[in-house]
């Protein structure tokens, strides 16, 4: 596996900020600390989950908090910064508005899973894990489409907002038609 | 659960900080307490064993706090979520 460098983490964040018209946190020390956190999470979990949230270490459970998280867009729109404040709006970047802590938008039910995920994981370990067992119980990925722009995603649940057109979760509908790929 | 202790001259309150080792806001909070010479104990929740994580969750929720970090618990009755210097000052009389 290639080594994850701080520079890679930074470049990825910068590219993403550019794409979406955001800026990275203007405080160099604070930014450095966030990037180091992302790097650390990518090293220990295999994906860069939010440095300011407790991750479970299980991809399916943490998917919504992998940076850029599902909650970034609505948080930047409402508070000017995402939860960890890696991504900020122009006025905060320029120092015209103060960067303040952002309240947690992620549902409690999802947060709670980080506290017992490993217990479930360690129980499942001895047996050879099949595809079914690897997933959190009670959920199965489905195809969802955004009724506003047509974006399609394969997940247990639709995203918090559409990453393309920013429509809310409620705008997503399940695609129930059976698609035969053969 | 292994708490790390930071010594300080302000000891009139029992201050517990629950933090994440990767979180920049947690780092600021810890720094703020240190800069203000507050004596406190902290633990990095992400580095804890599962059993301890659950104890921490129960502790935070029993005080009515959300599962957000940093979380400060003062004298085991007051809870401050996030890097809120105004609230920390008020609670600790800084």
Give the C-level CATH assignment of the largest domain in chain A: Alpha Beta
Number of strands of chain A: 5
- End-to-end span of chain A in angstroms? 33 Å
Most extensive contact:
A-B, 27 and 22 residues
User: What percentage of amino acids of chain A are in beta strands?
Assistant: 5-15%
Structural class of the secondary elements of chain A? mainly alpha
Strand content of chain B: 15-25%
**CATH topology value of chain B:** Glutaredoxin
Would you list the SSEs of chain A in sequence order as H and E? Answer: HEHHHEHHHHEEE
Number of domains of chain B: 1
The structural class of chain B is alpha+beta
Low-confidence stretches of chain B: none
Q: Which strand order do you get reading across the main beta sheet of chain A?
A: 4-3-5
User: Stretches of chain A where pLDDT falls below 50 for ≥5 residues?
Assistant: 121-135
* Shape assignment of chain A: globular
- Overall pLDDT confidence of chain A: 87
Q: Summarize the biggest pleated sheet of chain B.
A: 5 strands, mixed
Short description:
The complex is a heterodimer of chains A (182) and B (94). Chain A contains 8 helices and 5 strands; from the N terminus they run αβαααβααααβββ. Chain A has helices spanning 6-20, 28-45, 59-62, 72-79, 90-93, 108-112, 117-124, 131-134, and strands spanning 23-24, 87-88, 142-146, 152-155, 172-174.
Description:
The complex is a heterodimer of chains A (182) and B (94). With 182 residues, chain A is mostly helical. Chain A folds into 2 domains: 6-127, Ferredoxin Thioredoxin Reductase (Alpha-Beta Complex); 141-182, Rubrerythrin, domain 2 (Single Sheet), CATH 2.20.28. Chain A contains 8 helices and 5 strands, in the order H-E-H-H-H-E-H-H-H-H-E-E-E. In chain A, the strands form 2 sheets. In chain A, strands 4-3-5 form a 3-stranded antiparallel beta sheet, with no helix packed on it. In chain A, strand 3 and strand 4 form a beta hairpin. Chain A is globular. The two termini of chain A are 33 Å apart. In chain A, 31% of the residues are buried. Residues 121-135 of chain A have low confidence and may be disordered. Chain B has 3 helices and 5 strands; from the N terminus they run ββαβαββα. Chain B has helices spanning 24-35, 50-62, 85-92; strands at 4-6, 15-19, 40-44, 71-74, 78-81. A 5-stranded mixed beta sheet of chain B has the order 1-3-2-4-5, with helices on one face. In chain B, strand 2 (15-19), helix 1 and strand 3 form a beta-alpha-beta unit. The longest helix of chain B has 13 residues, at 50-62. The model of chain B has no long low-confidence stretch (mean pLDDT 95). At the A-B interface, helix 2, helix 6 and helix 7 of A face helix 1 and helix 2 of B.
